[in-house]
Amino acid sequence: MTTSTLHQALAGQTVVILGGSSGIGLETAHQARSADARVILTGRQRERLDRAARDVDAAGTGILDLGRPAEIERFFTGLAGPVDHVLVSGGGPPYAPLRDIDFDEAERVLDEHLLGALRVTRACVGRVRPGGSLIFITGTHARRPGIGLSIAAIAAAALPVITANLALEIAPIRANCLATGFVDTPLSARILGDAIEQRREVLRATLPIRRVVGPSDLAALALHLMTNTAVTGATFDVDGGQQLIPD
């Protein structure tokens, strides 16, 4: 789809981005606004959310925690008018070997990532227009086992299955999933700290695309899925070929 066609397809539509105050969510908001869509952002931190909303000229905001069902229902009930598309972004999973797993944190993350997807979807029914879309973001950690990846792998394996089932249940609303490898976001920088530049250098040298995947790569595909009405129940890998590289 050309840029002009995408602009025409999204112009005037309402795009809700859960986890839209930074990273992939914020970049998706930027691209949606560039296509003349109306965007509504949610986040957990008011100051950061307000800054993002000013940055993209958002039509509205909401403080939202996907682990709190009442907040999800209240947010969607409070939206004025129908919604065209919903993107569910947010923080990544914890990475820790078995001996170091914080099970309280793991339970919280899996609840938000998996049951949160179901809560959001149920809240969307009747509020997202027929033919609109719901897009989830997860990782590719289930494809290649590794020490410290257990919680991430559970989430990555389950969400595509959840998405496929939801595509049948909520039709004609469409449901799709983006699965990422390393994405160069502020969250990645916080996790890796001083090792972030070394990680970038390794990926530039080894990925088949010879560059690091960024939020704009995910956002571009998200907008495509919003406008391509033939796609539902699918999971798309956006990892620059990271899975193809031998350990």
Structural class: alpha/beta
Mean pLDDT: 92
Q: Helix count?
A: 9
The major beta sheet can be summarized as: 7 strands, parallel
What is the CATH architecture annotation? 3-Layer(aba) Sandwich
Order of helices and strands: HEHEHEHEHEHEHHHE
| CATH homologous superfamily caption | NAD(P)-binding Rossmann-like Domain
CATH class (first level) name? Alpha Beta
Work out the oligomeric state of the chains in this entry.
single chain
Strand order of the largest sheet: 3-2-1-4-5-6-7
The percent of residues in helical segments reads: 40-55%
Cα-atom radius of gyration: 17 Å
Would you identify the regions where 5 or more consecutive residues have pLDDT less than 50? none
Count the strands?
7
How many structurally independent domains?
1
Describe this structure in words.
The chain contains 9 helices and 7 strands. The protein has helices at residues 3-10, 23-34, 46-56, 69-77, 103-124, 150-169, 186-192, 196-206, 215-227, and strands at 14-18, 38-43, 60-63, 83-88, 128-139, 174-180, 235-238. Helix 2 links the parallel strand 1 (14-18) and strand 2. The termini are far apart. The model has no long low-confidence stretch (mean pLDDT 92).
